[in-house]
Amino acid sequence: MTEHRSPDTRFRTSLLEESDGPATNLTDNRTMGEIIATRFSRRGFLQGSLAVTAIAATVSPLALITADNARAAEGSAFTFDELEAGIDDKHHVAPGYDADVLLRWGDPLFADSPDFDPTKQSAEAQARQFGYNNDYVGYIPIDGSAEHGLLVVNHEYTNSHLMFPGIVKIVEKDGKKELEVAPLGKEQVDVEMAAHGGTVVEIRKEAGKWQVVRDGKLNRRITSNTEMQLSGPVAGNDRVKTSADPTGTKVIGTVNNCAGGVTPWGTYVMAEENIHGYFSGELPEGHKEVANYKRLAIPEGAYEWAAHYDRFDLGKEPNEPNRFGWIVEVDVNDPTSTPKKRTAMGRFKHEGAESIVAKDGRVVFYLGDDERFDYVYKFVTTGTFNPNDRAANMDLLDDGTLHVAKFAEDGSVEWLPVVFGQGPLTAENGFASQADVLIETRRAADLLGATKMDRPEDIQPNAVNGKVYVMLTNNSKRKADQVDAANPRAENAFGHIIEISEDGGDFTATKGKWEVLLKCGDPSVAEVGATFSTATTANGWFGMPDNCAVDSAGRLWVATDGQGPKATGRTDGLWAVDTEGAARATSKLFFRVPIGAEMCGPLFTPDDQTAFVAVQHPADGGEDWEPFGRPSYYEDLSTRWPDFKPDMPVRPSVVAITRQGGGKIAV
């Protein structure tokens, strides 16, 4: 079927990535907004740095913050000259820095890889080239080097309207202009499937510039057709068995890998997020997975894969979705190894899996479920990390305890174990085993009374100050009677950042304290209720925090997703955010992306001399961007970044940022 849309309507894959579907969490669990609102109404004006977060939305926060501008500026951990915010078709970095494109969609990764030809794409070529829509970026040193290592990159999803020529046209229909989008053929779907997954590629810094090592022996592409193993409590369960895999242990492929992580033992983890868009069809009448899939909005059908592959058709393979939505671990030291889906870490719309070694040697992973009104999790391994024996760590992720966060009005947080047999997670509520609990992690968290959050995305533990930073992107669907202590704003268009302090500085603790580090948005607009410090300039504020990173000095960097002329009047970018002392809640713009793009990554090398960032889906959504004001698709793009050649489409890319003349970033 040909699909008709008005020219100001976003494409389905764009909407899928924004998680803008109907609400799937219909529980009456308290929302974070309710908790924050109650907490602050009871405590009144808070003292010290917490006062920044307690300011009422009806009063300009800039008028109430007591820190002097000069004192805050002097106390900042960041000394770079700030970049000017804005909107255009190029990327920009702060003065004194270079931002070089390192890897573009379609770039060859192996000595025998074909060059990229956008008019002659094939699955075979794409499987040997850099994939599409780079999101998470990680760096694994080779021989401990900060200038020679493996770059690991997730390829979250594909935008067919930006990738393929000839599938989008504007036509006259009943006197109106509409987009006509042709269905994809099997060859194009095969290219999409090969463009998903991840990349492992050797890189080396030479004469101050990073280069791809195309004959690197560890280079690898992982795709939607890569064979994987289900491991942990769910492996072999009847609910993950299919006609192609009666054992319930062998899965083909991974999809929608958003953020991720690198483990302390040097493996690469990929987080499967918006899996619902890949499935179509209807479950057989009365099938037992109906409620389970509804909680994850399956099927959504943004992709046309089910038209060519039965495993994505619920009517033909009703258990297949249970094999997705996991954390995937890849042994980068062996390019022939089988990636493992680590089911002990839960099944939901994973955004990231950043980890830290706790005091007792156990490893803690922080996990966000990127949906409006869903939850924050952490996973604590049962075993301990052995820094002297990599092999001893390789199955740590198959045994541990998953927890979900419950935030209280008094500023405390409790981590509730998501464990079969504990509390309501029993046979009486439909769980027969831990496998059932993990397959239906969201329902288990619902029953435990976890706090409903405003799109939990990246969560980063900070080894320097012992804190944990939670990015909450936005939630415009939160109503006034749904605000709570940790989600303080109704119609939260700009998001906020929560800082957690685990009890005793122990990341394995089941209790801790929390406060709001930042409520985002334009602080000059009183009703927005943003809480940046008064030292933050007109360029320094941001909205929609998404990915984040902590450099080796313990400084926080925040990347955004969703800014634009209608929301903020600026593109997405990377901001440096002070978290300590008089400068706390001061933010400075360091890098910004071209029109239509999202800022992903970021990642710092161990010596802090390079920041890798991922520019995702540039040129998407051009109808929202003045002066462009039109739908953006292959033949009529709002930017042709990064090549700016008439015969080249826009290409998502990884950018390497270095200081001119060398040295650490932003000091």
TrEMBL record:
It holds the Pfam family PhoX. It comes from the Bacteria. This is dTDP-glucose 4,6-dehydratase. It comes from Mesorhizobium helmanticense.
